[in-house]
Specification:
single chain; about 80 residues; mainly alpha; 3 helices; rod-shaped
Amino acid sequence: MGTHMKTTVELGDALLAEARQVAAAEGTTLRALLEEGLRAALHRRHQPRAFLLREAAFGGEGLQDAFKENEWAKIRAAIYEDRGT
């Protein structure tokens, strides 16, 4: 796995005690348990989040009667009418 670096991490007493209990119960080391948890947290943060398009609808009954049977090109032309486009 390459080189290792020692560091100091401050943990709450209750969290550290629980981590030690879990490590002992699973027959692993506290270090291995901490590394596993850190890897899981980093992996979770690197997962792309699903894009969620916000609801942008507003009250109404759809297109005006004059446009209900038109194709998009005609609707777009009406939108930009008098805009010089």
